[in-house]
Design brief:
Radius of gyration: 24 Å
Distance between the termini: 59 Å
Oligomer: single chain
Largest sheet: 6 strands, parallel
Low-confidence stretches: 1-18, 64-73
Structural class: alpha/beta
Mean pLDDT: 89
């Protein structure tokens, strides 16, 4: 359990035993009153001084005791949702990407059905952090990265959390649920092979999350089984359609493959545009597919075959696990759900 020590001024406490408001004041080089005013939104401190004090308090693990004193003794009936892929992208409304909107919508409706409120929270390690953020009952963290700082912060503060997708490098962590990405990858690759593809290129993103890593491993396993040379073209998620279109030139220069599997729909749309612009027919010469259905995939011409995620079952599993943790019970986890592959014109010859 998390131990706390209450400060004497301003209703603040440290989450590390032994820390007081005096310690925060000493480290920040200000008075105790200044700390109290900065953390409680009072006084006439300059914006720079207030930000400095808050940064020091965050670093030392301080949180608002006004909520903590009462609400930490019981549940709030509210959970947080952190979308790590969008945090990394630096854009919470990427054009043509509706998978996150579907996930959030399902999470909100299923939370309400369970008597819970859902709060969307940006990167918890980047100030300013919403005042209620550390008083929520628990968190769903989507697509955590390897050594994810948000996960580390939640663990430090003793806040229950579950992850959508396993945290890479954490084989001991079992409180997660997601679609079976390895099975989805094998399904798509089998579909491309059935359409005659032997030389298949993979375009994963650069985020170090389980989705990228599991697809990459399934692809490498397939190459090893068939004695094929892997062709992997990493592309940062933020490059979008333009990045995919530019990558198409490199792919063609290194030899036109039978198929290209892009993890993101935006990359797939861009690669298809780039191939077509270079006279490479899709699907006549090369097949194109994506591991994430999106508006880009559905509206491309030809429409791009895609893996359709399963937010209904995945969110349900995540909430089951999280509610068990909040209740102090050991959940049945991890939980794998099944995605669906939508075969469209881009892979039909």
């Amino acid at each position: 359990m998390r131990e706390t020590v209450s400060g004497r001024a301003g209703g603040w406490r440290g989450t590390d035993a032994g820390i007081t408001i005096k310690d925060v004041a000493r480290r920040a080089g200000v008075s105790i009153t200044a700390v109290s005013h900065a953390l409680n939104g009072k006084g006439t401190l300059s914006a720079a001084t207030r930000a400095h004090i808050r940064a020091v308090a965050d670093e030392m693990g301080y949180e608002a005791d006004a909520l903590a004193r009462g609400l930490r003794r019981s549940t709030m009936g509210a959970v947080g949702l952190v979308l790590r892929s969008l945090d990394a992208l630096g854009d919470y409304t990427p054009a043509g990407v509706d998978a996150f909107e579907r996930f959030v919508g399902v999470a909100a409706s299923q939370s309400l059905a369970r008597g819970l409120s859902l709060m969307l929270v940006p990167d918890l390690t980047r100030p300013p952090v919403p005042p209620l953020a550390f008083s929520l009952d628990g968190y769903i963290v989507t697509d955590p990265h390897r050594d994810d700082p948000v996960v580390a912060l939640l663990e430090k503060r003793g806040i229950p959390y579950v992850t959508y997708g396993r945290p890479p490098g954490r084989p001991d962590f079992r409180h997660w649920a997601a679609e079976d990405d390895a099975a989805s990858a094998r399904l798509v690759l089998a579909h491309l092979e059935a359409a005659g593809a032997r030389d298949i290129a993979l375009v994963p993103g650069t985020d170090a999350n389980a989705w990228n890593l599991d697809y990459r491993q399934a692809y490498l396993d397939r190459c090893a089984e068939r004695g094929a040379a892997p062709r992997i073209y990493e592309l940062p998620e933020r490059t979008g359609v333009e990045g995919g279109a530019a990558l198409a030139g490199r792919i063609v220069a290194e030899g036109v493959p039978d198929a290209v599997l892009c993890l993101t729909g935006r990359h797939a749309a861009g690669v298809q545009q780039g191939l077509t612009a270079r006279g490479i027919g899709v699907p006549g010469r090369t097949l194109v597919a994506t591991a994430s259905d999106s508006e880009h995939a559905r509206t491309s011409r030809p429409a791009i075959s895609a893996v359709e995620l399963n937010p209904v079952d995945s969110v349900g599993a995540l909430l089951d696990i999280l509610q068990a943790l909040i209740a102090g019970e050991e959940p049945d986890s991890p939980r794998l759900t099944r995605a669906r592959f939508r075969a469209r014109a881009s892979t039909r010859r």
